[in-house]
Amino acid sequence: MKQLDSYYYFRLGLNLYEKVTLPVREKYGLSYMEFVVLLFIANNSEYKKASDIVEILGIAKSHVSETLNTLEEKGLIERKRDTQDKRSSILEVRERAKDIIEEGRNVQKEYKAMIYRGINEREMKEFCRVQKIIENNIKENL
User: Could you give the CA distance from residue 23 to residue 69 in angstroms, rounded to a whole number?
Assistant: First the structure.
């Protein structure tokens, strides 16, 4: 069997994630990007700046800015001035987004259950170990 390029698996995973999150996104009138950014902010308390989203998710600065503006207009996030860096803002999820986040996290759990089905604990540890090696190789060569 021919080994497919890793990009194929990456895209396949994204396609499934888009499909699985669609009902929640439609229910709350969110675009895919709005959903991804909102859940990222909610799930990663250590990353609270737009620059973090750009760096970690690899999304263009202009797309992040536009998405944050829309989420703010919808009342789902707010920006507070960073007391240590006046040029940037700290992103916070508002109470109004609570139900979206709860449903979004449930969908994320379903997604993980789908993609990791049939993988036992030993295999998962090995998979994580190999992923870490790949991550380090990529970072060394960036």
Answer: 23
Q: Which helix (H) or strand (E) holds 25?
A: helix 6-28
Given CATH 3.40.50.410, say whether it is the number of domain 6-141.
no
51-72 burial, b at 16+ Cβ within 10 Å, e below that, comes to ebbbeeeebeeeebeebbebbe
The answer to whether 90 and 96 are in contact (CB under 8 A) is no
What pLDDT, on the 0 to 100 scale, is given for residue 1? 47
pTM for the model stands at 0.89
More confident residue, 24 or 89: 24
Backbone angles phi, psi at 90, to 5 degrees: -95, 130
Q: How many CB atoms lie within 10 A of CB 25?
A: 19
Distance CA 69, CA 75 (A): 10
Q: 4-8, 31-35, 125-129, 137-141 — which is least confidently predicted?
A: 4-8
Contact call for residues 51 and 110 (beta carbons, < 8 A):
no
Would you give the DSSP letter of residue 3? P
